[in-house]
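Are you able to produce any protein sequence you like plus the matching backbone structure tokens because I've never seen that pairing?
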Amino acid sequence: MLLTESLIHTLVENSAITNIQAIELIRIAAEVKVEVATAAHESKGRMQESLALLSKMASSFESDQN
């Protein structure tokens, strides 16, 4: 996750994508996580941990917008 967040921050810093696009990308990743976890019968606890990390990642980009 750290590598992914660093990559997305680099894309934003280099103007390859906007902050808004970064947030949307993370939102889509969260939706996909739910779908994959549900299909794989992953525990709700594990899924929530992943979603919490994605939420923190999105928050870092949201705070950069302000």
Notes: The radius of gyration is 13 Å.
